[in-house]
């Protein structure tokens, strides 16, 4: 009996990536179907209705990092969060998992940018663009990276920005920005943004990468801005932050909240009874709105004396908090398994919205890749 192709597609698009990779060995027909770009897009669309959390950690004792895929908690159904598919990355020098976009994840590993699909085990490593020769003699140097996705042209891009100060710390400031589109493996220089220092982790949605930054003038920190990088047009925009927001938020963390970018203070959740959020409700007019969320009366009992801070929102609209270390469970409605072999002290925990995908980190056709499932990626 031959299963009709439309029925087969309907069945296969609901399966996890690991099963699909194994099923490419069933027959030439199945392999061709699963590797078809149409099916890959169809599977990705279906996976987007079942998002996961991607938990990234940096193990200080072992000098390595890892990623866990975690089912998101459905609202009010009491489900448990289960961590699955652990992957470790030795030589992870960057403090962050930069972003998860359409199933691909960016990391800083060994002074390079690594784009990986943590579910297939495939990854691609890219060297950084060289410093322009005329700027080879510098007094200060900082490299910053971002990872974004353009939903219109459906392209993943890496943004690499370096800030250089010439002739002493109070000397001339230069900023260079480069973009690499997956599938081209070539850096292109882009212009059009005032020099600034990126601070903290970015968020990317609807084709725009957002991150906080200081403006720079002759090596001196200036005003704080929200920087928006349009992935498709490869253009920058610096959005002014209201003066009142500076009083409420001293260490800003960017999150996506109700389809908007928002700022919260990552240090206040431990000591305060409320969370203050500034939301950019109108990007074009630069209109911000302040919202205050009261924490429940039992909040202190849950977090005790631990540093817990907001890291984003889940699809149910709930605000997600995370501890800086995982010495013991602190969330009353979840259980995270699979961390037994990891040091209890982590430098950074990162929680990202993630969907399963068959996409390749190099934008190479899936059928040309040899896929296996190692427990570790070196």
UniProtKB/TrEMBL annotation:
Entry-linked PROSITE patterns: FBOX (PS50181)
Pfam families tied to this protein: F-box (PF00646), FBA_3 (PF08268)
Domain F-box: from-to ranges: 1-42
Coiled coil: none
Recorded superkingdom: Eukaryota
SMART domains: FBOX
Matches recorded under NCBIfam families: F_box_assoc_1
Protein name: F-box domain-containing protein
Species assigned in the record: Eucalyptus grandis (Flooded gum)
Organism placement in taxonomy: Eukaryota, Viridiplantae, Streptophyta, Embryophyta, Tracheophyta
């Amino acid at each position: 009996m031959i299963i009709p192709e439309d029925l087969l597609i309907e069945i296969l698009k609901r399966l996890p990536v690991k099963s699909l990779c194994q099923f490419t060995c069933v027959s030439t027909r199945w392999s061709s179907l699963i590797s078809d770009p149409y099916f890959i897009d169809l599977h990705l669309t279906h996976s987007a209705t079942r998002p996961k959390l991607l938990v990234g950690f940096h193990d200080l004792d072992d000098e390595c990092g890892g990623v866990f895929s975690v089912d998101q908690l459905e609202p009010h159904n009491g489900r448990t969060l289960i961590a699955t598919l652990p992957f470790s990355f030795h030589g992870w020098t960057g403090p962050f998992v930069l972003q998860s976009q359409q199933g691909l994840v960016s990391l800083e590993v060994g002074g390079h940018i690594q784009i990986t699909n943590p579910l297939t085990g495939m990854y691609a490593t890219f060297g950084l663009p060289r410093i322009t020769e005329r700027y080879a003699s510098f007094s200060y140097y900082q490299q910053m990276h971002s990872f974004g996705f353009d939903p219109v042209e459906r392209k993943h891009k890496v943004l690499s920005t370096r800030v250089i100060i010439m002739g002493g710390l109070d000397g001339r400031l230069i900023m260079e920005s480069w973009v690499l589109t997956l599938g081209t493996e070539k850096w292109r220089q882009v212009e059009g943004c005032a020099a600034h220092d990126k601070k903290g982790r970015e968020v990317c949605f609807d084709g725009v990468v957002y991150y906080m930054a200081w403006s720079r003038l002759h090596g001196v920190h200036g005003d704080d801005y929200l920087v928006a990088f349009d992935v498709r047009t490869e253009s920058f925009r610096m959005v002014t932050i209201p003066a009142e927001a500076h009083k409420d938020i001293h260490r800003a963390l960017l999150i996506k909240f109700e389809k908007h970018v928002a700022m919260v203070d990552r240090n206040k959740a431990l000591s305060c009874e409320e969370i203050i959020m500034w939301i950019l409700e109108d990007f074009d007019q630069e209109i911000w709105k302040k919202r205050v969320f009261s924490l429940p009366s039992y909040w202190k009992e849950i977090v005790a004396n631990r540093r817990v801070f907001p890291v984003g929102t889940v699809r149910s609209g709930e605000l997600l908090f995370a501890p800086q270390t995982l010495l013991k469970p602190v969330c009353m409605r979840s259980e995270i398994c699979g961390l037994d072999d990891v040091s209890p002290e982590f430098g950074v925990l990162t929680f990202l919205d993630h969907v399963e995908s068959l996409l390749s980190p190099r934008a190479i056709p899936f059928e040309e890749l040899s896929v296996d499932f190692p427990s570790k990626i070196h």
